[in-house]
Amino acid sequence: QYTFTLHFTMQQDSDGHWKITKIKNYRTYLDTISPRQNRDIADYIAATHGIVNEYNEQFAAQRARFQALTAQAKGNLTGPVAASIKALIQNEVVPTLKERQEQLDAVSIPPGAKYLANQRHMSTDLSIDAWKHYLHAIEKHSNEEFQTAETLLKQAVETDMRIKDIIRHNTVSQALPDID
What average pLDDT does this structure show over 98-122? Predict the structure, then answer.
């Protein structure tokens, strides 16, 4: 949402197409946009801090119950233990993920924080898909569904790592003094 004119050096290839060989004022662009983007991200993090903390506590409790149930199952996901795991996923985990995302979506997202908000949304979608495949794996006794769930879970974890990196970078950026 900011107007900035970039100055390019271009060169014509032998086939007649032009290509950019240098952005002359790219550092100035970064110096102009970075503080604004960092401020937007900091504002968004502050606005969502309570939501994230509240739901992280719920997810930790659900994760502990899930781990206890899977330990009890001892690799045999059938019968009452499987039913308890399915109920936990269907009635608590997936609805909690959806509730958290709805609350995050209700927060105003400053322009510089849209990427962070999109990453959070992607993480939620991947997590929900992973849990749904895990449910199908239990219901169908399907190793393929378990593998799909595992792949989606890894993608969600990678996305969560990007989110943490953005937040960590923003925290460090906010702590650095302005040097003129």
Answer: 97
